[in-house]
Amino acid sequence: MSKVIIDLKALKHNLSVIEEWMKGRGSQWSVVTKVLCGHADTLKALQMLGVRSIGDSRLENLRAIEHCISGFEAWYLRLPHLSAAGDVVQLADVSLNSEISIIHALNDEARRRNREHHIIIMIELGDLREGILPGHLVEFYRKVFELDCIDVLGIGANLGCLAGAVPNIDQFMQLVLYRELLELKFGRKLPLISAGSSAVLPLVLEEKLPKAINHFRIGESIFLGSDLVNGGTLPGLRDDVILLQAEIAEIKEKSLLPMGETSNIQPFETAQIEDEYTPGQRGYRALVTIGQLDTDVHGLQPCNPEYKIAGASSDISVINLGDNPMNLRVGDEITFRVNYSALLRLMYGRYIEKETRPSLEEFSIFIGEDTHDIEPVTHNITAIHQGA
After folding, report:
1. What is the mean pLDDT of residues 235-261?
2. Which of 12, 34, 308, 354 is catalytic?
3. Is 208 a catalytic residue?
4. Domains of the chain by range and CATH?
């Protein structure tokens, strides 16, 4: 059976390292869990590790989180849509917004529920995702500040999340200036500039990011250790928090190139490895029980660098093992590292088992009887209201 393995000790390590980075610059942050797709055991482990601020882009995931853990601050990271305003106010403490009509709907829902809803106003800075155009900021904020049940925590931006543009210092300095402008214009403090993400962490390590950028929404680098700017793994982080194990269903010595005439009838794009082999060359090939129905196979990388993915169908992937199968047999497993796209589909897929190692019970013993032996992520809203 194929399964996703979540290493809780590696997860604890990455959380602790990133928390030290955040403490070093006096920043607050939220753990982005959308890649977990509501996986209960991993969410419970995050709670054991002191995580109290969680961001997700699916209301279904926030509902699942609410069912398995308590006492956390929920950030809704997908732009709310009008028909979901009630659910957003019910499930999220904070949401990211760029449309005044939707903020009005959130205000109405918050008033109906006798509560306050907190928002971050998103500004477009070049990645061409969500955000108000800077020229409309003043008038937009004038309308938002008139609402009685909306609390504006600050401004934010998404950089490096769609178009692939590398975040730069000039963009962040623009945000700092926009906050200063709005605070002077309206005489109200905007405590947060929420523009940090996994893509911004290299600038943090280089100590180039303005201190005023004081809230981060971090997901991929926690779970994969990714350096999204330079490639590879960020210094000090582990890249083995989440791995895929796929069971071998067949292993045989075969030709490494297809025989006869080929065409484009295959339903999925195959790996371009033909140039590596010569006609008649043979080697060992393993078929593993993972396919395009389960994940983005192009996002898998065998942990053994000698192995190469030759291609995949909907249910099976073929792995070239080379001249020596290293005593692998049917029933053994091949382990893969995954990229973000592959991981997202694996965690969402109902055909793939997910397992934490160690178990939650063993992990609780590992981190000690006081399950809050570290507290990496606190309530951002509470910290703001306490004057942090």
Report:
1. 88
2. 34
3. no
4. 8-228+362-385 (3.20.20.10), 242-360 (2.40.37)
